Amino acid sequence: MKPSTIIAAAALSCCLHAAAQQQSQTMNTRDIYIRDPFILPVEKTRTYYMYSTQSVKNEAGHDVGGVKVYKSKDLKTWTGPVQVCQLPETNWSAGAIWAPEVHRYKGKYWLFATINSDIEWKKPVSGWPAYIWRGTQIFKSDSPEGPFLPISRHQQTPLDQMALDGTLWVENGQPYMIYCHEWVQTADGTVNALPLSSDLSHATGSPQMLFTGSAATWSTGNNHGSGFPRAYITDGVFLYRTKTGRLLMIWSSYCDGQYATGIAESVTGNVAGPWRQQPQTLFRQDGGHAMIFRTFDGQLALVLHQPNSGGRERAHIYKLEDTGESLRLGEEMK
User: Taking residues 153-179, what's their average pLDDT?
Assistant: First the structure.
């Protein structure tokens, strides 16, 4: 068998084994613990899919990273969860997964997920916090309900960069992964654009740095102690083109000690930028890692998790107004 066939077969077996053990239930949005929520509306079935992480045990009894999905018809009551992906042991890492999101592209569904390894990154300064290596990897399925299979054995983000929170952006037919280069490697985290092949399997060029975490006046950073550089986090990037053609990016960092979400705008209207930061945050009540979608009745909406810690994280969905120049947060949809 070809290596890609072996990967697919192993992943399919794991996904089906895990899915068979799921017990579906019905619950309210506020009953679901979730970080980094991502909602995919599928018009054909008028179903909303909300993706989350879930580590599961494989057939050998080992804990491996996985992704689950909840389904809803009204964004209030959800059924599930159903396991849609489990990392095969032949993957570059079968560790924990963060921030899964699913995009429809060329008739398929593509899962972007941050994969954590068991490799500890060497700290640049003695005493700097230790973190495990991570990168964003892409998986593919014929259905939003999976199973999602890896399109390669390795991450698509650069192997020499600790990276996370990759998202898909297609511009003039060219797909890009927009991702965050981790602050733990750079102190001042960055947002980068990586051109991908048409099948999303590999990079076709070098990453371009779009902006740093300290570029926004609202991003005040975190202090990790005397003698260490101030850290600026870049998290949860998502791109949106307004009704007047402006290209915006929402992203999260810290503002006065609380998780927050702001807006960057491309001056040229192209992903290459340059990018400038809007001075006001979109959301700053200790919530973030947001994404934008449109409901089946045409309402623009934003979902994020809040608060950002303590095991109390829940998905909160808000009405969103496209002003043409920016985005304005409306009332929460309950």
Answer: 97
Whole-angstrom distance, CA of residue 74 vs CA of residue 295: 9
- Please say whether the beta carbons of 207 and 196 come within 8 A: no
3-state DSSP call for residue 149?
Answer: strand
| Contact in structure between 270 and 249 (CB atoms under 8 Å) | no
Pairwise CA distance, residues 13 & 96, whole Å: 19
Cis previous bond, 274, omega within 30: yes
Provide, rounded to the nearest whole percent, the portion of the chain with pLDDT above 90.
Answer: 78
The amino acid occupying position 97 is: I
φ/ψ (deg, to 5) at 282: -80, -35
d(CA 147, CA 139): 9
Long-range contact pairs involving 128-132 (C-beta distance under 8 Å, separation at least 24): 128/184, 128/224, 128/228, 129/184, 129/224, 131/162, 131/182, 131/184, 132/95
Q: What is the pLDDT of residues 246-276, one digit of tens each?
A: 999 999 999 999 999 999 999 999 999 999 9
Buried b (16+ CB within 10 A) or exposed e, 118-128: eeebeeeeeeb
Q: What whole-number distance in Å separates Cα of residue 308 and Cα of residue 285?
A: 9
Tens digits of per-residue pLDDT, 191-206? 999 999 999 999 999 9
Q: What is each CA distance from 53 to 113, 219, 286, in whole angstroms? A: 9, 27, 21
- pLDDT value at residue 184: 87
Q: What is the pLDDT of residue 280?
A: 96
Cα 112 to its chain centre, rounded Å, is 7
The answer to whether 140 and 108 have CB atoms below 8 angstroms apart is yes
3-state class (DSSP) for residue 296: coil
- Pair type for strands 314-322 and 56-57: unpaired
Per residue in 131-140, pLDDT tens? 789 999 999 9
- Number of residues assigned to the chain: 334
Which residue has tokens 């009894």?
61
The answer, as to whether pTM is greater than 0.85, is yes
Q: What is the C-alpha separation between 108 and 148, in angstroms, rounded?
A: 10
184, 161 contact by CB (below 8 A): no
